[in-house]
Amino acid sequence: MLGSALRAELTRRGEPVAQLVRTVRNPTGELLWNPASEPPMASTTPIEGIRAAVHLSGANVGAQRWTSAYKREMTESRVNSTRALARMLAGLRQPPATLIVASAVGIYGDRGGELLNESSAAGSGFLAELCQHWEQAAEPARQAGIRVVQMRLGVILGPGGALAKMLPLFRLGLGGPLGSGCQWMSWVSLEDAVRAILFAAQRPELQGPVNLTAPEPVTNAAFTCALAHALARPAVLRTPAFALRLALGQMASETLLSSTRVFPSKLVNASFSFHHTTVDAALAVALGNATAGNRALS
């Protein structure tokens, strides 16, 4: 969802974009890329002289229960691909000035109501450790003089992603808080996520970890109320924490029930202006886009 929106905005701005893909379907805008091969591209010539690279890939953290095999897939799809791209960019005759790599606020772990910024220590748990390795994998690019920005993403509110998974139940009036509902959720609108990535690409003072979240995180209970209100549906069916852990195991504990209250200090200090500072505003836009998309498909 984020990559597609980013490409669309760059195209709208008249910026040339090359997408790295495993299977080329459009030779004019796609380049063959397999991070597991050596070298990962048949030729690096097409990307010589690019201004910036953005790396967003990674197996969906919330797609299924975290088995040992899926943990390995989540790790390899993030860490190995980031390292391969960083090394490839570092080896170019004309490397880009900037590499923006996705990370996640999951790096902070379950921190209750503690207000976290980029200087806060990393937390514990599988997801926190994964994010640390993910960020460290970009080190070859930094050592080559490329400015590296690790965008620590919160929950992105757009027509797809996590919101799309919630909508069917909420539209039936079967939604509700998860566990106690007191856990903090750090979110950002899709539009602001795209704008912040492009903002970071143009601001040389931004480097290292950057929290990509709206400045007003909310609790799960508050988010539930906002979504139910936006859909004009009740949301009183609380899902007990033990049921979530029983069904989804560690994934539930470290994502759905984990509390991460994050503030985007670096973006705010760099004078980035969020278009959507409240979850109600972000949901209104996301739900409007989702409805428009459904009409277009019908």
Task: Characterise this structure.
The protein has 298 residues and is α/β, with parallel strands linked by helices. It has a single domain, classed as Rossmann fold (3-Layer(aba) Sandwich). The chain contains eleven helices and twelve strands. The strands form five sheets. Strands 3-4-6-10 form a four-stranded parallel β-sheet, sandwiched between helices. It is globular, with a radius of gyration of 19 Å.
Bulk shape? globular
What's the CATH C level? Alpha Beta
- Following the backbone from N to C, one meets helices and strands in this order, namely HEEEHEEHHEEHEEHEEHHHEHH
SS summary, helix count:
11
How do the helices and strands line up, and which of them pair or pack?
Blueprint: H1 2-12, E1 19-21, E2 30-32, E3 52-55, H2 68-90, E4 98-104, E5 115-116, H3 126-136, H4 139-143, E6 147-153, E7 155-157, H5 161-171, E8 184-185, E9 187-189, H6 190-202, E10 208-212, E11 218-219, H7 220-231, H8 241-248, H9 250-256, E12 261-262, H10 265-269, H11 279-297
Parallel strand pairs: 1-2, 3-4, 4-6, 5-12, 6-10, 7-9
Antiparallel strand pairs: 8-11
Helix pairs in contact: 1-6, 2-3, 7-11, 8-9
